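Researcher: Let's try something more involved. This one mixes different molecule types, so please make sure each is placed in the same coordinate frame as the others.
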Amino acid sequence: MAQVPAYTKAEEQLERIFEAFKEREIQRVFYVACGGSSALMYPSKYFLDRESKNITAEIYNSNEFIHRNPMSLGEKSLVILCSHKGKTPETTAAAKFAKAKGALVVSLMYVETAPLAEESDFIVNYSWISAGNMEPNPEIMNYAILYKLAMGLLYVKEGNRKYEKLVSSLQHLDTVFEKLMKTYAEKAKAYAKEVKDEKIIYTMASGSNYGMAYSFAICILMEMQWIHSHAIHAGEFFHGPFEILDENVPFILLMGLDETRPLEERALAFLEKHGKKNLVLDAKTFDLTGIDEEVRGYIAPLAINFVLRMYALALSKERNHPLETRRYMFKIPY
Amino acid sequence: MAQVPAYTKAEEQLERIFEAFKEREIQRVFYVACGGSSALMYPSKYFLDRESKNITAEIYNSNEFIHRNPMSLGEKSLVILCSHKGKTPETTAAAKFAKAKGALVVSLMYVETAPLAEESDFIVNYSWISAGNMEPNPEIMNYAILYKLAMGLLYVKEGNRKYEKLVSSLQHLDTVFEKLMKTYAEKAKAYAKEVKDEKIIYTMASGSNYGMAYSFAICILMEMQWIHSHAIHAGEFFHGPFEILDENVPFILLMGLDETRPLEERALAFLEKHGKKNLVLDAKTFDLTGIDEEVRGYIAPLAINFVLRMYALALSKERNHPLETRRYMFKIPY
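Model: All components are placed in one shared frame. Result:
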C-alpha cells in the first residue's frame, strides 16, 4: 500500500499548523474537550503557564466552554480540541462555536474523518492502540501531539527551545515504555489482587501530573471499573480531603519530576504515616534514558500514564470487569 | 465603643483597593488560596471569564501557584488571596512570592491582623458567623467581597456596570437568606435523616456553582463529616463519572441561574432517570426578590451556599459528628 506512515502524516499536519501560528497573533489558548480527552490537556497548560511570557492557557469542558462563552475568545485565540473518534457532540459544537468567534481551531482525533474535523481549521491524527494497531508510536500519541502543539507554539512565538528537546526526547519514549512494561507487569497484577474488592480508591498528584490522576479516577475507576473515586490535588489534600484518610482508604499517589514535586512528597509523607493502602508510582524510579533533563518534568506524566494503563488492565482482568463494559455510555440516550 | 462598623470598614478597605486599580495596568488576575477559601473564588473567575475583554483569571492552590510559578505573573498581575484566620502558611508564602514578583497583592481574611496581612498590599476583612457574631452581614461575607473586587475591577478598567447592580442587590441578601432559612429548615433535617448512614455522597454543578459543589464535597463531607465525596462537573459527568451511578449512589445536584444551567438540567434529567438518592437544590425555586435580574446568575451560588450550610449543620447533628471534629487538621504536624 502507498499509505503515508502515521508519523509522517502527523508531522506534516503539525507543520501546516505551525505555519498558521506564524501568520497570526495568539494571546490565549483554550483547551476544550470532555473527560479523558480533557485530562490529556493538563500537562500542556502546565507547560504554557510555566514558560510563556504572553500566552495564557485555560482548560474547559466543551459544554462549559460554549455556555460560559469567555468574552476574550476571538481572533487572537487558539482553540485546541480533542475527541478520540471526533464524534463527541459537545466538542464538535465547541469547535463550531470557536470558529464562529474567529479563533484558530485545531482538533486532535484518532480517526481521519469525523464531524469534529469538519468544524476545525486543522486536524492532527494521533496514534493509539487498537485492533489494527497494537504498537502505537509514542511520538505521536495524543499527549505527545499536545506537547508538540504547545511547545511548537512557543517555539514560533517566543523562541522557546524546549520544542527541540521534546522532539529528540520523544524518540526514546518507546524504549522507556518497554522498560516500564517489564518493571511493572507483575507489580500491576499484585496490586490488582490487593484492591480488587475495594469500593473506593482515591488518586492524587499535582502540577503536570494532576491530569493523569483525574483521568484514572474518572475514566478508569469510575467509568470502566465502577469503583468510586476522586482525583485530589496534592496541595488541596491538606485543606479538607485528608480528613477522610484512615488505614482502610486506598490512595494512588502519582509522583512526577516537575517543579511541584514537593507537594507530592508532602502528600507521600502523610500517606505513609496515616494510610496503609497506598500505591505510589514515582517517576524518579523510572529509567528515562534518552529523555532530556530539561523536559523530564514535562514527559514524566506520559510515562506515569503508561504505567497507569497497565494497572487499569490488570485491575480489569482481576475483577473480571472488562474496560469496555458500560451501563450507559453509547448505550442509551443522555 | 467607638469601633468602626464592619461594613463601613470593609467599604473603606475596598475603596482604597479600587484607587490602586486605577493607578496600574492589570492584565491577569490570579486567585490563590487553599481548600474552602479557594472554592470561594470560582464564581469570581466565572464573572471575569464571561465579562472581561482583556483581563484573564486563574485559580490556583497556594502551593501549586508558588511551585508552578506562572511566567506571566508580574507587575501587571493582581493576586487575590484568602485565608480565614490569615495564618495558612502556603497562602502567606504565596502572597510574599507574588509581591516579590511585583504583583498587586490583595488578601481577604476574617481577622484584623495576621501573617497574611503583613505580606499583602491591601487586606479586606469579611464578616462571618462566630461565637461573637451570630448575625454576619451578607453584604460583606467572603463571596460578596470577592465579587465586589472582581466587579469593581471591571467597573474601573472596562466601565462594566454590573458592580452597581451587585451592590444594590447584596442589600437584599439577608432577606433572601431569612426566607431560605424558613423554607429549608425542615427539608435539611429530613435529608440528614435519609443519608446519615451513607458512606459516599457526590456533589455536582457547573459554571459559577461548581465551587459550591467543590466546597461541600471537600470541606463539609470529607473534612467535617468523614464521608467520601467528589465534586463532579455537570458537563464532565457524561464523559466517565456517570457510569458510577445506580439507585444506591447519593448525589447532590446544585442548579443555579447562570448561562451553564442547561448542563445542570441535563444532569438532573439523568439523575432522575437512573438515580434514586438525589438531592436537588434549585435556585429557580428560591425567592430572590431584590436581586437584580442581571446579576441573579452570579448571586445564585451565594444563596445555594447558604442552603448547603443548613444541610451541613443538619447532617452533623443527625450524625452526632460536630462540624469542628478533626483527626489531623491543626492537631498534628503535616
